[in-house]
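Duplicate of #3305? Posting structure anyway:
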């Protein structure tokens, strides 16, 4: 079922959902199940599964370093299929422009269609680890809006190179990313919102936000998006701080602010167990306020660990 239909059917109730990341290559899917199991009692209508970009590894051979491309966490669509059928829940694979040609994307989408996956997140992806700026992959899209257009074309039965006559067109519900504190490369929040509007005009059906720790940023973002003519659901994505290092890492990687009260509370912690508890408490307060404001879904970035998300959900749902 489409995310937008889940939201409609909820009739104003806030839904619970979360995002997981595929295990490292060679690990077992049971590790994922062990973390999903405790969250199923909160009846998520959908679970997102991220896609990781390829990266370079350097292998030493005869004293020389051989540079190879690899993907450390492959398997997004396979994981989506397996979770969908094990738990009878919708799954949302993340699609990236980076690392995929348009043809490769089409094949992934054909797989999704066969597997009965009705929703996808269309994302550009970040620059590769060794690179400063995002470089489009040869034959791929420059920006997420291109991916949205490709998805929309496929929904209309238009494959890239083949005239396919079918009564069973794909009908993907398309999610895109939004940034309450603006995307790190955008020159201003206003210009980033214009880009978001382009994605929605190209066919995106809903938006999921980057994490934020101050709800006011989300509320202002939603208002500004509405003023710009964006009227699709904007789902807040939130994450509990889990280790002290997040205070430096999250602003550095995502260019987001952390409120001073939260910084002070984390600074006062003697160890990461205490930090995890502070993160949970902050996220409970954030969730309660967002829920009473009537957000359609509370979407949690679980990073594959469920104990803190469960502790939050128990107090909120
Ligand atoms: C909910 C969510 C889920 C995510 N999941 C993943 C994941 O699974 N895997 C992963 O690798 N990353 C993921 N990301 C991170 C995402 O890939 C990065 O934030 C990436 O840098 C931008 O992706 P985007 O889809 O927002 O890009 P875009 O919408 O393409 O925007 C990227 C930047 O380009 C600008 N821009 C857009 N269009 C144009 C244009 N035509 N001309 C000039 N500038 C333009 C925008 O303002 C923005 O600054 C996720 C992010 C979010 C919020």
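Output from current build:
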């Amino acid at each position: 079922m489409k995310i937008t239909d889940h939201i409609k059917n909820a009739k104003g109730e806030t839904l619970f959902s979360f995002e997981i990341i595929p295990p490292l290559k060679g690990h077992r899917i049971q590790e994922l199940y062990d973390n999903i199991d405790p969250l199923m009692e909160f009846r998520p209508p959908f679970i997102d599964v991220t896609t990781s970009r390829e990266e370079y590894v350097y292998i030493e051979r005869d004293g020389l370093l051989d540079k190879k491309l690899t993907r450390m966490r492959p398997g997004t669509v396979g994981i989506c299929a397996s979770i969908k059928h094990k738990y009878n829940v919708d799954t949302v694979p993340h699609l990236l422009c980076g690392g995929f040609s348009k043809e490769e994307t089409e094949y992934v989408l054909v797989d999704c269609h066969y597997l009965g996956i009705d929703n996808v997140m269309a994302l550009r992806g970040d620059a590769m680890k060794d690179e400063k700026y995002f470089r489009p992959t040869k034959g791929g899209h420059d920006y997420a809006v291109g991916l949205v257009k490709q998805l929309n074309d496929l929904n209309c039965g238009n494959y890239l190179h083949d005239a396919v006559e079918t009564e069973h067109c794909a009908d993907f519900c398309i999610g895109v990313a939004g940034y309450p504190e603006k995307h790190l490369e955008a020159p201003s929040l206003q210009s980033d919102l214009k880009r978001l509007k382009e994605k929605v005009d190209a066919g995106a059906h809903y938006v999921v936000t980057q994490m934020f720790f101050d709800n006011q940023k989300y509320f202002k973002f939603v208002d500004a998006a509405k003023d710009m003519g964006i009227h699709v659901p904007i789902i807040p994505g939130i994450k509990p701080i889990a280790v002290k290092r997040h205070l430096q890492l999250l602003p550095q990687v995502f260019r987001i602010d952390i409120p001073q009260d939260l910084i002070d509370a984390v600074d006062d912690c003697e160890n990461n167990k205490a930090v995890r508890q502070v993160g949970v408490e902050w996220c409970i307060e954030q969730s309660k306020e967002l829920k009473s404001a009537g957000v359609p879904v509370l979407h949690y970035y679980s990073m594959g660990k469920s104990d803190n998300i469960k502790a939050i959900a128990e107090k909120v749902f």
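Confirmed duplicate; merging threads. The chain has a mean pLDDT of 96. Residues 50-53, 94, 96, 121, 123-126, 143-145, 177, 183, 185-186, 192, 195, 199, 208, 210, 237 surround flavin-adenine dinucleotide (CB under 6 Å).
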